[in-house]
Amino acid sequence: MAPTKAPDSSRRSDRSRRAIHDAALALVTEVGYGRTTIEGIAARAGVGKQTIYRWWPSKAAVLMDAFLDLAGRAAEEAGAGGETRSGETAPGIPDTGDLAADLKLVLRATVDELNDPALEAPTRALTAEGIVDAKLGAEFVHKLLDPQLALYVTRLRAAQEAGDVRADVDPRIALELLIGPLMHRWLLRTLPLTHAYADEIVDYAVGGLAPRT
């Protein structure tokens, strides 16, 4: 008789975590954050409630991890990273030598993510909860926003070195000229969030950042 192979507990754990992540995201999309519960997530994932509490202290923590996992998968599928001036592929915002074109590419992708039903509900839930829960809000910024904003800083500094952006411009403030309008329109639903709008934001911002002649 062939020896019985011991079950791989790490693979089983990964499957359970993914099931819990998917359940949390699905419930937030279907019934909203307020009506999503640990019990509901456990039932949807087919695990015991204590399994969730073993890994996370609250439904906000579950949703945070689920969203980070989802965002990571989306980045992998989209092929995160861009072409550099030398033709090599590097992580971050593309640097082809055309700042406006590179930023339009990234902001259009951001528009698509914000309009994606799978991402929109959990993003809104985490954003809203982070306003009233300072600890969660800080974690959201630290784990999700700061790494993304750092990519803009890197690209804008490269543009400064190339002479495409004024040397006196603070990249951290400059990136808010790009991200701020998108988030304002998306959060408040003032008008449709479109590629054309993203392109206009880039044109306005890059025009203001360019060296004065």
Defining key terms:
about 0% strand, two-stranded antiparallel sheet, mainly alpha, about 210 residues, 9 helices, about 70% helix
Topology:
Blueprint: H1 9-31, H2 38-45, H3 49-55, H4 59-78, E1 82-83, E2 89-90, H5 99-115, H6 117-132, H7 134-161, H8 171-188, H9 195-209
Antiparallel strand pairs: 1-2
Helix pairs in contact: 1-2, 1-4, 1-6, 2-3, 4-6, 4-7, 5-9, 6-7, 7-8, 8-9
Number of strand elements: 2
Give the topology string: H per helix, E per strand. Answer: HHHHEEHHHHH
Number of helices: 9
Helix proportion of residues, in percent? over 70%
Please give the alpha-carbon distance between the first and last residues.
83 Å
Q: In percent terms, what proportion of residues is strand? A: under 5%
Major β-sheet annotation: 2 strands, antiparallel
Mean pLDDT over the residues: 85
Structural class determined from secondary elements: mainly alpha
Low-pLDDT segments: 86-90
Principal-axes geometry comes out as elongated
Rg, rounded, reads: 21 Å
Q: How is the quaternary structure best described? A: single chain
- How are the strands of the largest sheet arranged? 1-2
In short:
The chain has 213 residues and is an all-alpha fold. The chain has helices at 9-31, 38-45, 49-55, 59-78, 99-115, 117-132, 134-161, 171-188, 195-209, and strands at residues 82-83, 89-90.
Written overview of the protein:
This protein has 213 residues and is mainly alpha-helical. The chain has helices at 9-31, 38-45, 49-55, 59-78, 99-115, 117-132, 134-161, 171-188, 195-209; strands at residues 82-83, 89-90. Strands 1-2 form a two-stranded antiparallel ribbon. A hairpin with a 5-residue loop joins strand 1 and strand 2 (89-90). The N and C termini lie far apart (83 Å). Mean pLDDT is 85; it is low at 86-90.
